[in-house]
Specification:
By secondary structure, the protein is an alpha+beta fold. The chain contains four helices and four strands.
Length: 165
């Protein structure tokens, strides 16, 4: 009987040990679940911050691109109403247009380019590129003062494609 008591006590001791182990494991699992919950919450907050930083970076990049594009257009003018000459390069068309007495002493453009698709109805506008802003403004003023007599030809500042269209 003594032997049975010893076995019984050993079994009870093992049951207590298992119960303590289970309780300890449950506490560890609960602690790990809490830690995981906190980490997920922190990750979500960090992700939201990263998304916001990304949005701000995109806005800054867009603004920077707009400034760069505006800076690239600062010496450009758009000339409207000059008839198209199929065989004459556009720069030569502009230079021919500028042979008028009103354009005397103006700087010659560096480049000229027809914009848009060719149409039989109207002449495409011409982007005229000057070396300096002053040259551009002098050209615009002369064209538009001449345009008062001939409303078919006029000049504007270069703008983005979205604004031009």
């Amino acid at each position: 009987m003594n032997k049975l008591n010893n076995i019984d006590q050993a079994v009870k001791g093992m049951q207590l040990t298992y119960a303590d182990a289970l309780k300890s494991n449950n506490e560890s699992i609960n602690s790990l679940e809490d830690q995981c919950s906190k980490l997920v919450e922190q990750s979500t907050v960090q992700m939201d911050k990263a998304v916001e930083v990304n949005r701000n970076a995109e806005k800054l990049m867009q603004k920077s691109n707009e400034i760069s594009e505006a800076d690239a257009r600062k010496c450009n003018a758009i000339l409207y109403g000059v008839p198209e000459g199929d065989e004459i390069p556009v720069l030569e068309q502009v230079e021919k247009f500028m042979r008028d007495e009103r354009f005397k002493n103006l700087d010659k453009p560096q480049a000229a380019l027809r914009l848009g698709k060719k149409s039989t109805e109207t002449a495409r506008p011409i982007k005229v590129v000057f070396e300096t802003i002053q040259s551009k403004w002098a050209f615009i003023k002369r064209v538009n003062s001449w345009g008062l007599e001939n409303d078919k030809v006029f000049c504007k500042l270069d703008a983005s494609k979205e604004i031009r269209d």
